TrEMBL record:
It comes from the Eukaryota. This is Reverse transcriptase Ty1/copia-type domain-containing protein.
């Protein structure tokens, strides 16, 4: 469903943003921040889909992401200038490990430097 179809289905008359350049600059800055704050990636990617015709609600949502970031400045990946950043991944699987279901148990982690950025476990 496109944003136009969504607006028509819920009968929203959201005005287009007058200054699209400020929206482009803000989304660009947020995209840059996703390098050290991967937890905002989905929100920024969703907002970047409306770069051609951003609406006031998209601008408000982008400002909400900024307020979220400002609310907890200690979050994010703090990279050392002394070490070369390295991406490391580990995975493991155990065939039919669960005694009840005989399903395979798998797990994986992804680290960027000393920081855990992804973890997944599946039974």
């Amino acid at each position: 469903m496109t944003s136009v179809e969504y607006d028509q289905s819920v009968d929203l008359h959201n005005d287009l943003l007058e200054d699209v350049n400020k929206n482009h600059r803000l989304i660009g800055k947020l995209l840059y921040l996703t390098n050290t704050r991967p937890y905002i990636t989905f929100a920024v990617q969703s907002l970047s889909q409306f770069m051609q015709q951003p609406k006031v609600s998209h601008w408000d949502a982008a400002l909400r992401v900024v307020r979220y970031i400002k609310g907890d400045p200690g979050k994010g990946l703090l990279l050392s200038s002394n070490q070369k950043p390295q991406l490391t991944g580990f995975c493991d699987a155990d065939w039919a490990a669960c005694p009840n279901t005989k399903r395979t148990v798998t797990g994986s982690i992804l680290k960027f430097g000393d920081y855990l950025i992804s973890w997944k476990s599946k039974k």
